[in-house]
């Protein structure tokens, strides 16, 4: 079995994972504060947001018990985020821009490590990329479902979130396909996804809604303009 | 191990699965358009609706990685449905009656194949039927949860959906119990569930709500009638 | 492997499990009636509430198929609760206090058995406690998500629910750590969690919301008082 996730040294890989988990946990904890949850609600939403995507991936590939339940650091990181947000949430919200940058880093990192781990466990290239995407966005979807909101991943009026992860995951499987996956190309995939997400936020890139919905909306606008 | 799902030839079975996945994906994609999701939201909801039930079944019986992640056709079918609905959704909605017929076919098919696969993996008869039901309705429940709606499966004001699947799954386990499960009886279970769902839609069959809730509503009606 | 769940005799353990499942099912069925679901919606919500936590635990530790699908009693108990609530829901709601007591008993029981089973399957002490907590509260969270409500576990305006389960699970892992886990200490953990939940309901103990949110609210109150 090709252990393609020996791309980074284990300790670097682990440190990167912890950073990704931490920033995702911050985003969960902040939503919990906005929804007026109590301190346990904040902790639950932080844990679910940070670990949900990886948990789903590990259940699918049969890696049980999932890393979230075997690595104590993975479990403690969201609790640290909870304490931080509990006491300092106005300060953390004021640094929302910084949080968004970290979240983009987590997105880039998780789509690459998720794809790599899925391939390691024997999934095909397309399935690995799909599961990498699910790893990166799954926690955020669970967060929004628990907070009883429409997942921001699905909403039209949010800046592109899936596309950067799809690009990152696709780069990884192309590298695997052409046998050039290594620490360098892998890092390039992380950085590409990260940069694309930053650009999407900066320039408010949106994905299109269904075709005729837009056309009919445009027609209505045209009719209104004529009527005036 | 009795491989009762060798009922149909593998290629027929696979073709039927793909049809079921496709029609469920259409229903997910249409809901996404109505909820004003972007194109990625449409694709996610199509995938989840089409593959969610089978994914749940495979996790429960320990068939990992689930078929949804090993069979490329299963993954691509919802993407085709997404493209179709993206460009043609007014036409697809106009054929809502046709979509409902296909959805009923998917329901019939999935409750039978779900029950059969669960039994193959060693579950008891009752559990197999329960998991067959979950396979058939699980995707739709996930679809509604992600769209932040009360699952239509649970709602009182929707035509019977669970009962046809329960009948189909029960027919399968009775056939297993009396050792008469074959391509013919299995097909009969699919067609029975399919026909029951069509009849439920045609005649707006509903399931009752809790006992006293209805009685008190009737009393109120009676009081109103007296008052007039 | 230390089978710490041989604490109680198997038949006592099983009877306690069935009681816990039954009372959780009642709480799910009652919410379904309040949400105006039909009889199948009531049954689905009863099953999900009663079995969801244990199902999640079993998927995480790799105990597939989960007990919910291998033990017929686990599956039938929620159906009995459904029939009961369907016909007698005003009477059951009138005994809401009694239901709450049973629900507290289920909480105490499930956090202890969940923690023990997780440890049996090789999880660490912290992870076992976390999974014991998830077993105890998971069904209720799923119930609220399916009913399209914010999980009451997360809400600030509900009496403490997580803390009693955390205390119970922590007592179990401390007993394991100091090698004094037996039927007696295990029962003490159940009773402690049970009693804490009863006290939380009796005295409306709440968990705090985020720090500054409370301060600013207090400031607003102070300003209002000054303005008058």
Automatic annotation (TrEMBL), chains A, B, C:
Query: What name does the UniProt record give this protein?
Result: Trimeric intracellular cation channel family protein
Assigned protein family: Belongs to the UPF0126 family.
Key words of the record: Cell membrane, Membrane, Transmembrane, Transmembrane helix
State the Pfam families in the record: Gly_transporter
Q: Does the keyword Cell inner membrane apply?
A: no
The opening ranks of the lineage are: Bacteria, Bacillati, Actinomycetota, Actinomycetes, Kitasatosporales
Span-the-membrane segments of this chain are 12-32, 39-60, 72-90, 121-141, 186-205
What's the chief localization of this chain? membrane
* PANTHER family given in the database record: INNER MEMBRANE PROTEIN, UPF0126 INNER MEMBRANE PROTEIN YADS-RELATED
Spell out the subcellular localization from the entry.
Cell membrane
Chain coiled-coil ranges: none
Q: Where is the Glycine transporter domain?
A: 15-89, 101-175
UniProt KW Nucleus keyword: no
Q: Which organism is it from?
A: Streptomyces litmocidini
How this chain sits in the membrane, per its record, is: Multi-pass membrane protein
């Amino acid at each position: 079995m090709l252990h393609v996730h020996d791309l980074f040294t284990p300790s670097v890989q682990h440190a990167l994972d912890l950073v990704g988990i931490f920033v995702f946990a911050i985003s969960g904890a902040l939503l919990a504060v906005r929804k007026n949850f109590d301190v346990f609600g904040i902790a639950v939403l932080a844990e679910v947001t940070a670990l949900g995507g990886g948990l789903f991936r590990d259940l699918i590939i049969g890696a049980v018990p999932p890393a979230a339940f075997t690595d104590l650091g993975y479990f403690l990181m969201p609790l640290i985020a909870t304490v931080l947000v509990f006491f300092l949430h106005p300060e953390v919200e004021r640094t929302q821009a910084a949080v968004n940058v970290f979240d983009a880093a987590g997105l880039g990192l998780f789509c690459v490590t998720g794809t790599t781990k899925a391939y390691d466990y024997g999934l095909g290239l397309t399935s690995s990329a799909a599961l990498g995407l699910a790893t990166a966005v799954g926690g955020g979807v669970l967060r929004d479902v628990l907070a009883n909101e429409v997942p921001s991943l699905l909403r039209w009026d949010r800046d592109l979130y899936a596309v950067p992860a799809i690009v990152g995951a696709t780069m990884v499987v192309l590298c695997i396909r052409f046998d050039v996956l290594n620490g360098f190309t892998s890092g390039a995939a992380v950085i590409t996804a990260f940069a694309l997400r930053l650009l999407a936020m900066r320039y408010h890139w949106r994905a299109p809604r269904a075709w005729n919905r837009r056309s009919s909306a445009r027609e209505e606008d045209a009719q209104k303009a004529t009527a005036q």
